[in-house]
Amino acid sequence: MARAGANRSGLIIRTARVYSGLFMLAFVTAHLLNLSLGVFSGDAMNKAKPFLTGIWSNPVMGSLLLTALVVHFLIGLWAIYRRPTLRTNPQDLVQLLSGICVVPLLATHVVGVMSLKLNGIPFDYAIALKFFWVDRPEIGLLQVILLSVVWIHGCAGLITWLRSKSDMRNVLGWLYPLAVAVPVMALTGYAEVGRQVLIEVQSQAAPSGYYETEPAASTSIPQPARTEPIRLPYEQVKRITNGIIWWSIALAALTLIAREVRVRVQSSQVVVIRRGNAPALASTSQLSVLDSFRAHHQPHASLCEGRGRCGTCAVRVTGFEYPLPEPTALEIKTLRRIGATEDMRLACQLTPAGGHLSVEPVYPADFTFEESEHAHPIPPPDMKQAQT
Length: 388
What we know:
Helices cover 58% and strands 7% of the residues. By secondary structure, the chain is of the alpha+beta class. The chain has a five-stranded mixed sheet with strand order 2-1-5-3-4, covered by helices on one side. The longest helix is centred in the middle third of the chain and has 36 residues, at 169-204. The model is unreliable at 206-222 and 372-388 (pLDDT under 50). This is 2Fe-2S ferredoxin-type domain-containing protein.
C-alpha cells in the first residue's frame, strides 16, 4: 500500500511539473511573439496584444499563472532536495539553475502587471516601453534577462521531455531552430521599438517618473487619450518583488542545506559496480546506477536525463550480491514499453542496497531515437537473442 501510494504521488508530482512548465512556457512564448512585432512598429505590437499578451491579463489566467509558477518552483526545489547528487551534465545543470531563478525573475513581471490592474492603470506598450527604456532602463534589462532565463529553462525542459518519446523525434527537428529564432526575433523587435521610443522622448523632452499620454504627431506608438499624467506604482512593485526575490533565494538556500544534511545523515553501504569488461566503480547505496556512472564520468545513454521515461539507460543485470529493490510503477511501465526482458532494469531507477553489482548496457552511450527506423529503438543483437 505504501509503495502504491508513493507511486501515485510520484506520478502526480511529475504530471504537475510538466503541465505547470508548459503553461508558463506558453505565457513566455506569447510575450516573445508580441515583442517580435516591434520590428514593424509599436502599433503592430498593440494590435496583436489582445490575442497574445492580453489573454493573460484576466483574473482567471493570472491566478492560473501564479499557481503554475508556485507549483513548478516548489516541485523543482523538492526535486533538488531528493537528488542523490548534484553532479550532472551541462544541460541538466543549466535547467536546474535556471529553474531556481524563474520565480524571482518572473515575479517582477507578474507583480508589475497586477499592480497596474489594481491601480486602474491601463497597460499598453506605450507605457511599458517608456518605463523600460527611459525611466528605469535597469528594469528593462531585467525583463530581457527574465525572458531569456525562463525561455532557456522552458525549452530545455520541453526538449528533454519530448526527446524521451520515440514518436516525437521528427518534432525536435522543428523545435531546435524555433528555440533560437523566437527569442532572437523578440529581442530584435524590442530593440527596434525601443529605438523609436528614445527618439520620440528626446523630441518631446518628457520628464522622468511619469508619462504624458498625448502623442506628438511623429509618434509611432499609439497611446490612450488622457489629460492627466500616468504615475506608475514603481515603489509598491519594487517592495513586493524584492520580498518575493529574497524569500525565493532563502527557500532555495534552505533546500540546498536540507539536502546536504539529508545526504550526510542518511546511512549508506558500499556498492561496487562492474559494467561489462570495464574496471569496477566504487559507489554508495545512495546513488542510482546512472548517477554512479556520472560520478565517475562514465558516459551512458539517458535521453530523458534520468527521469525514467525514455528507457535508453536500460542495463542488463548479470550479477548482484544484495537483493535488488523492486522496480517502481514508472520503471515497470517504461521497461514494458521498450520490450525489456526480465533481467533488464533502468539505470536511473535502480539503486542497489550494497555489495557487488554487474551490468551490461543495452544501448550505446551516444544512442538517439533517430538511429532507429522503428517507433522505439531495438535492443542490440545479443539482447534480441536473449528475448528469443
